[in-house]
Amino acid sequence: MMVQQDIEKRLQQHFNPAHLEVANESHMHSVPANSETHFRVVIVSDAFDGKRKVARHQQVYAELAAQLEGPVHALAL
Questions:
Q1: φ and ψ at residue 35, rounded to 5 degrees
Q2: pTM of the full structure
Q3: What span, in angstroms and rounded, lies between the C-alpha atoms of 43 and 52?
Q4: Cα–Cα distance between 59 and 17 in angstroms, integer?
């Protein structure tokens, strides 16, 4: 499975978002062609209601911990 698809699947399953965008921005960095190392995520979910920005980010980072330890070098939220 491609990294971007894995990220999208995990976020969909865990947060059931009303809106989700996952953009591969690897091409904007010094990496080989077709890399999947740098991503930007926009996510809107009821799971974040009443939580501060840092807590929201922590939830996403926790859900994507395996990807952040492996193929993903950078994740912008």
A1: -75, 155
A2: 0.92
A3: 14
A4: 13
